[in-house]
Each structure stands twice: as C-alpha cells, then as structure tokens.
Amino acid sequence: MNKTSCELIGDLLPLYADKVCSEESRELVAKHISGCEKCRKELEIMEKPVSADFKDDIAVIKRIKRRMFIENVVTVVMISVFLLSVCNLGFLVMFTSDLPMGYYEYALEDKICIEEDADGNLWFVRKEGAKKSFFLLPDVYDENGNRLSTDEDFDKEKAVAVSYQMRIMLHEKMSNIYSSGEEKELLFNKNDKPKIQTIYYYDEDTDENIVLWERGN
Ligand SMILES: [Zn+2]
Fold it and tell me: Could you tell me the distance, in angstroms and rounded to a whole number, from the CA of residue 44 to the centre of ligand 1?
C-alpha cells in the first residue's frame, strides 16, 4: 500500500484534512501516512488550528480593503472635481464670450428700434427674429460729446446722448436664441430723459454711432 505515491496522497490530503473525502480515499491516506513521515508532516500543517498568522492575514486583508476603499473615495472625488471643472469651463466659454453685435453684420436695422410711448417713456424694442442680447451697454455723453460713463451711474443732468451697444454673452456660433415675438426693454422713463437728445447704436466694426432715436423725430 505504501506504493501509493506521495503525489496522489498530496492531492487527497486537503480533502482528508477537511474530512470531506470518500471512505476509500480516507483509508488510503490513513494507511499511507502511517508509513510516510513526509506526508504525515504535511497533514499536521494542514490540520493546525486557526493560528495567529491567520488572524494577521485578516488584519492585512482589512487593511487592504480599507486602503482600496480610500482609493475608491479619492478616485470618485477626483472624477467629480474633474467633471465639475469641465462644466465650469463650458460655462466660462459660454458666458465670457462677450461679443458686440455688429449693426450691419446682424442687420439690426430691421431688428431693433427705439420707441417712444404716449407717456414719453423710451423703449428698446427687439423685433421678432432678432438675436437676444443679454445686456445693453450704454455709453453716455454730455452736450460737448464727452463720455460720462459706461454704466448707469452717469450724471443725468449732463446726459444728452446715449450710445448703446448690444452685447451677446454667448458665443456667436452657440447663440441660436431668437426672441419669439417682440420684446421691449425700458431704457428711460419720461422723468429720466429730459435732456436726452439722441440714442445711438455703436457699431464696433465700423466705429460708427448710428442714430436710433432723436428728440422731436
Ligand atoms: Zn508520502
């Protein structure tokens, strides 16, 4: 029986140690190890109770799992930060592309005008099909043609003329936003414009102030 090779017994030993092999195999292994020191030693190692080594292994596995968890969290955070910056970049491109709308380039003659209503209020009118501007940039001048300000804090007593520039904040190519129907924006109510004589549209391409409205016209 000792002829049974150590190799075959080696295959059976784990099953034998776990007590899951067949009766026949069990007898075979038992007989072999009674006469084979080498295989008996191997079995003893397999049958050792759960050792401190194994507990160390669990600690190592826990450490690895914790490290993997931290790495996963770091990865998720980094991906989030990356996606957020991509989004921000998109917004940055969209909202800093502050382009003046050329009066001729956009054929604004047909698309915008200044209207004075019965009460004397002045309105900026965008007709249907005009590209939506996102803000109007006013340049205010005194009677000597001096520029007072580019914002709304100008000295109303001195103001006699305003030159506006519509600026689109979306890039021209991205901006397919058209006003649906007529849109009106109040520029001056009657109390604000006693001295305003002229309202221009400033065309940056030609460096030209185009008259949109003149008092008495
Ligand atoms: Zn053996």
Answer: 13
CA dihedral sign of residues 67, 70, 72, 78? negative
Q: How far is the CA of 10 from the centre of ligand 1 (A)?
A: 8
Phi and psi, residue 123, nearest 5°? -120, 140
Ligand 1 centroid to residue 25 C-alpha, Å: 14
CA of 12 to the centre of ligand 1 (A): 11
Say how many Å lie between the CA of residue 36 and the centre of ligand 1: 5
148-185 residue pLDDT tens? 765 556 666 777 777 776 655 443 444 445 566 777 88
pTM above 0.85, yes or no: no
Compute and round to an integer the Cα radius of gyration of the chain. Answer: 43
The string over 24-40, giving b where at least 16 C-beta atoms fall within 10 Å of a residue's C-beta and e elsewhere, is: ebeebbeebbeebeebe
Would you kindly state where each structural domain of the chain is located, as residue ranges? 6-47, 50-96, 108-214
Distance 13 CA to ligand 1 centre (A): 10
Sign of the Cα pseudo-torsion (91, 175, 126, 204, in order): positive
Tokens of 118: 């019965």
